[in-house]
Design brief:
Radius of gyration: 22 Å
CATH class of the largest domain: Alpha Beta
Bound molecules: flavin-adenine dinucleotide
Structural class: alpha/beta
CATH superfamily of the largest domain: FAD/NAD(P)-binding domain
Order of helices and strands: EHEHEEHEHEHEEEEEEEHEHEEEEEEHEH
CATH topology of the largest domain: FAD/NAD(P)-binding domain
Number of helices: 9
Distance between the termini: 50 Å
Number of domains: 3
Length: 406
């Protein structure tokens, strides 16, 4: 792949390839003669970048992830006209549902926009998942779960963005960007959460060019010898700080609250305190970013009311999980923050009108019979790998009951 170092499009494609375990070589136009030679050879102008050169095909010019996935021979289209279960999102909840559904004889398909593993796939080391006393990396968990789901016969479609859901009599249809869709007798929404964007001058403009939301473990190596700033105080921020500390000269954690222990597991707090090149700054938040081509400096507001500027090329943000449910519109009942309401919570008076059947909803069922929600996207979920996996597996039991009741 040939492109500019600080390009958002290059960053997205590199993330897509590495998270889907596709080996690639990255050549930077700013630093590499070979990059310039290849770009000239392909006659690539500014709008053609990043340029992706794949074996035995024309170079891809600024491709979408879907075009790239198709060129690489990854599966992007459904093979069957009707499935028993369509799973939206291949994080731990979706992958667990795929394993249990396929292993119990349901025709299952998983649709994933980015890469299997979801948020967990970005973790350098998950240390609290049952059965792995020394921890395991998110990439490893994702790879193993994907292999397990495929072995049982679940289909996995990649680089497909689900944009809507429809009821067609007893069938549910999951719509993709474009005109395509998939029909299934039941649907699981396991689209998880993403991080809230920081507000302030320069922050949006520099997103993907030094300001990053979440990060995959593999990105830490790019920060070799640099100063890295991490915003947030939950376990995800703590893990990221520890991972960056292996490569960066210094990692500064900016925490709005007064204590790390209020929101982070004690085992992570202890590891952070024992790491020499991590500095924790309490009562601090980022209010602005500055840079021309890429991030050069951030402004930090401190509890004392003062403002200070810090030079850095790297800001990683892990705050305020927001459910990835905008694509659902009014199709299912969500709470004020967008989390999907399921089971008994649908029987609260404000939601009761939306439930159409005489029977009560199953535990993880949404306001549309046969459409379930599991993992972080569900109202009142625990936001952990183990609970997402548990809910994904439990959904399959409920889908069996739902199909039997029809
Ligand atoms: C860096 C990091 C470290 C963490 N460490 C730990 C830990 O050590 N222990 C722990 O228990 N928890 C940890 N967590 C939390 C844990 O990863 C989550 O609770 C868990 O991944 C939730 O799983 P999920 O399947 O519900 O959703 P997600 O993991 O969020 O997966 C959702 C998937 O759905 C896909 N998707 C979303 N919208 C669409 C759409 N419209 N179309 C198609 N696909 C879509 C996404 O691309 C994503 O792959 C960590 C989280 C992060 C970010």
């Amino acid at each position: 792949m040939v492109g500019h170092r600080w390009s958002q499009a290059s960053h997205e494609l590199k993330t897509f390839l590495s998270r889907n375990h596709v080996p690639y070589q990255w050549l930077e136009l700013e630093r590499d003669d070979e990059a310039r030679r290849l770009a000239d050879l392909a006659g690539a102008g500014v709008t053609d970048l990043p340029l992706v050169i794949v074996p035995d095909a024309e170079p891809l010019r600024a491709p979408s992830t879907l075009t790239l996935a198709e060129a690489l021979g990854l599966r992007t289209r459904a093979e069957q006209p009707l499935y028993d279960l369509c799973i939206v999102g291949a994080g731990p909840a979706g992958l667990a549902a795929a394993v249990y559904a396929a292993s119990e004889g349901l025709r299952a398909v998983v649709v994933e926009k980015e890469a299997p593993g979801g948020q967990a796939g970005q973790s350098a080391s998950i240390q609290n998942y049952l059965g792995f006393p020394k921890g395991l990396s998110g990439a490893d968990l994702a790879r193993r779960a994907t292999a397990q789901a495929s072995r049982f016969g679940a289909e996995m479609l990649l680089a497909r963005d689900v944009v809507g859901i429809e009821t067609r009599g007893p069938v549910r249809a999951v719509r993709f960007a474009g005109s395509d869709d998939i029909e299934a007798r039941a649907v699981l929404i396991s689209s998880g959460v993403s991080y809230r964007r920081l507000q302030g001058p320069g922050l949006e403009e520099l997103a993907g060019r030094g300001v990053f939301y979440g990060s995959s473990a593999g990105e830490a190596v790019q920060c070799q010898g640099d100063d890295v700033y991490v915003v947030g105080a939950a376990n995800s921020a703590g893990q990221a700080a520890l991972n960056f500390a292996r490569y960066a000269k210094r990692v500064v954690m900016l925490v709005r609250g007064a204590r790390l222990e209020d929101s982070m597991s004690m085992y992570l707090v202890a590891q952070i305190q024992a790491t020499d090149n991590i500095e924790v700054r309490l009562g601090a938040s980022v209010v602005a970013a500055r840079g021309t081509e890429h991030l050069e400096a951030i402004s930090i507001a401190t509890g004392a009311g003062s403002l200070e500027e810090a030079s850095t090329n790297w800001l990683f943000v892990y705050i305020g999980a927001q459910p990835r449910t905008d694509w659902l519109g009014d199709a299912v009942v969500r709470d004020g923050h967008g989390f999907i309401v399921t089971g008994n919570d649908l029987l609260a008076s404000s939601n009761l009108r939306a439930w159409p059947l005489a029977r009560t909803p199953y535990a993880l069922e949404s306001s549309v019979p046969g459409v379930f929600a599991a993992g972080d996207v569900r109202l009142d979920s625990m936001k952990r790998v183990a609970s997402a996996v548990g809910e994904g597996a439990m959904t399959v039991y409920l889908v069996h009951r739902y199909l039997a009741s029809m």
